[in-house]
């Protein structure tokens, strides 16, 4: 008997997805697939468009992280213009990305995942959401709301109120950063630092309750990929890529994103629109799974020796004492996210003291000087790569976007499989199991489309499929 | 004190609340802060904390004249996901300990919610009344 | 609008208002002079009359609606500039413009400085009743300073006229007909290869949409300045640049 459970779509992740669980002849879960059923087509319809338009256009890929696309697209544009943005522009972009990571992590942690972590996986679904959290734990909910608000204020300070602004452009940014903007940010810094550190303390205090999740939510060996400075300091926008093996040994360090194709392959699939990038040297044949790697908060803190800011480094040291130098469980994405929230607040504070941020020259001008440009940065969910080829007039002839969620796809599949094996017992689909599969997927904070669902009310379904392809059970939640 | 105008700027009369708060802002009344928002999001609740009075000005299709109603500042409003009205915002603030001392909703009658960047004549004619009501509340 | 001598003496009724028009004045000129709004797109003060967009259609009691820009007033003319039928006509014209191009404000360089966008808001275009063509039109980015994006062109011919009538270079023309109609440089060569182009940029500043823009501008960064042409035409007609001291 081979059954398949499908969870379709998973709630409280961004976008739509469904999950199928394939049962083997022995009644155990043999395979799990995470399907992304939306087709966006950005790489096609950007062809023929001017490169200067790409930040504005590709920002539309996503309503959650338009800022990440703005940044990666602008960096790809910098490469095609062959210009170095002025120092003030580089700092403004850094500030913008920190604000983006901060607000996105706050949303992921407080609004989406905290209900599971703080109310418990088996808590009544009717109140296992952010509003239930507000009533049960108002102090925590307050911190989440304030941290996210602060991240958004940082973004607004740089990019203006419009979500899809064009404030980041090839060659730099569009306007000067003012001391007025700084004062607004500085006023909130102490409160934010307090909120971030209190959140870490809280998380540490409840993590012991999740021993079983810790060992079943994607606890496996994988490669880790992300930006990192040459000296091992955590990095989110500048610098190059570090690729680390499961045991912490360095596979490639300081890879120029321009050369990512030398190291990464992309596998297309018949059952999902998400491409699965993989680490090429580990793959021999059609199966990309040996080349599975993880990106995002967990990968970044595994790659880095240090954050380079005192409070985050203190948290990182305690984390490593508890989970080892390389943390293997995807359940620890949450912990990594909170550590990054602290690092973001510290770095925003440091930037506020940097006189270069306020300089007037914010944009370098140039024409088309290179026919290919690659821009990369760390989106909240992981490494984002924009790869453009243009004709001599700067019109896009080919484009490849490597999205964080895509890079985690193989790891997400593996995580679902592990959780299903741990929590699925026979052809029954229990609520507790569904919750855990969802929560396991949510640990990666996957961003599958362009819609914000701060409170997950998306319908969801799981199906269970037999070896002969028959759907044995389907659970749908609305 | 905080006066919040909420609505879409490209939906004709839906912008009435925002037109009103811009007028209130022009008056530069001491101790009065103004916010002009496309919609109420949970983050707005944080801005209610410690206020003596919060006034929300919104367009409404179910009133014929400018209407002022007090808003409960305890946890009695209803919360729905993905949409937050003035009552929901106050409820949220109450849950989070950010409730103001007092709150009121000023509704401006809206007749046209189609695409457009100008208020209808009917709604525009009521802006003065709504501004006066806001002033009376904060006086 | 060239300056007119004397006093207006042609009696005309416009939206029920009795006014006096100048001899030879167009309905549009009259309406603007007396403060009656009529939407336009292809029309631009300082350029010749094109009468192509049909947005300024008005009711003169004739069996069909007339373009206000290209119809001269006559004595006792009774003009209705707006009613339900006219509004419906105008809204459909705007919808058709959207249907045949690829007008996506979200990442357009001219968003916020676009007459088509303004017309859509003004005419309550919240969706398009016609099937969208999604025709792909070429972007010509061969010019070192400017970009022509035919996806955003509404064929108003302002660029054709300003280049011919004001700059005197006549780089632009409309080639082909119907759905195939497109703005071309020279004998349909890449703009950057046109030896006639003086790089003056007048076509770019008069463009009502994002079809013509300064190269390298990002989303929402383009600002057009069509009134510049009226200023130039007036200055030229009145000889403002001639040094009168020399004559005296």
Describe the structure.
- The complex is a heterotrimer of chains A (478), B (139) and C (248).
- Chain A contains 15 helices and 16 strands.
- Chain A has 478 residues and is of the alpha+beta class.
- Chain A folds into three domains: 4-38 and 423-477, no CATH class; 84-219 and 330-365, Cytochrome-c3 Hydrogenase, chain B, CATH 1.10.645.10; 220-328, no CATH class.
- Chain A is globular, with a radius of gyration of 22 Å.
- The two termini of chain A are 29 Å apart.
- The model of chain A is unreliable at 11-15 and 449-459 (pLDDT under 50).
- By secondary structure, chain B is an alpha/beta fold.
- Chain B has four helices and five strands; from the N terminus they run βαβββαβαα.
- Chain B has a five-stranded mixed β-sheet with strand order 2-1-3-5-4.
- The mean pLDDT of chain B is 89.
- The radius of gyration of chain C is 19 Å and the shape is globular.
- The two termini of chain C are 29 Å apart.
- The mean pLDDT of chain C is 92.
Short description:
The complex is a heterotrimer of chains A (about 475), B (about 140) and C (about 250). Chain A is of the alpha+beta class and about 475 residues long.
What topology does this entry show?
The complex is a heterotrimer of chains A (478), B (139) and C (248).
Chain A: E1 4-7, E2 18-23, E3 29-35, H1 42-45, H2 54-58, H3 66-81, H4 87-119, H5 130-136, H6 138-159, E4 168-169, E5 172-173, H7 179-207, H8 211-216, E6 223-228, E7 240-244, E8 250-255, H9 260-263, E9 264-267, E10 276-279, E11 293-294, H10 297-303, H11 310-323, H12 333-352, E12 372-379, E13 382-390, E14 396-402, H13 404-407, H14 409-423, H15 431-442, E15 460-465, E16 471-477
Parallel strand pairs in A: 2-15, 6-11
Antiparallel strand pairs in A: 1-2, 1-15, 2-3, 4-5, 6-7, 7-8, 9-10, 12-13, 13-14, 15-16
Helix pairs in contact in A: 4-5, 4-6, 4-12, 5-6, 6-7, 7-12, 10-12, 11-12, 14-15
Chain B: E1 2-6, H1 16-26, E2 33-37, E3 53-60, E4 67-71, H2 86-95, E5 102-109, H3 121-124, H4 127-138
Parallel strand pairs in B: 1-2, 1-3, 3-5
Antiparallel strand pairs in B: 4-5
Helix pairs in contact in B: 1-4
Chain C: E1 10-14, E2 17-21, H1 27-33, E3 57-58, E4 66-67, E5 77-79, H2 84-100, H3 115-122, E6 139-140, E7 146-149, H4 158-167, E8 172-175, E9 182-185, H5 202-206, E10 212-214, H6 227-237, H7 244-247
Parallel strand pairs in C: 1-5
Antiparallel strand pairs in C: 1-2, 3-4, 6-7, 7-10, 8-9
